[in-house]
Amino acid sequence: MLVVLFYRWSVATHAQWRDKGVKVIKPYPLLGSWPKMILMQDRRSQMQFWKNIYDLMKDEGYGIIYVMREPSLVVTDVELIK
Question: How many domains does the chain have?
Answer without folding.
Answer: 1
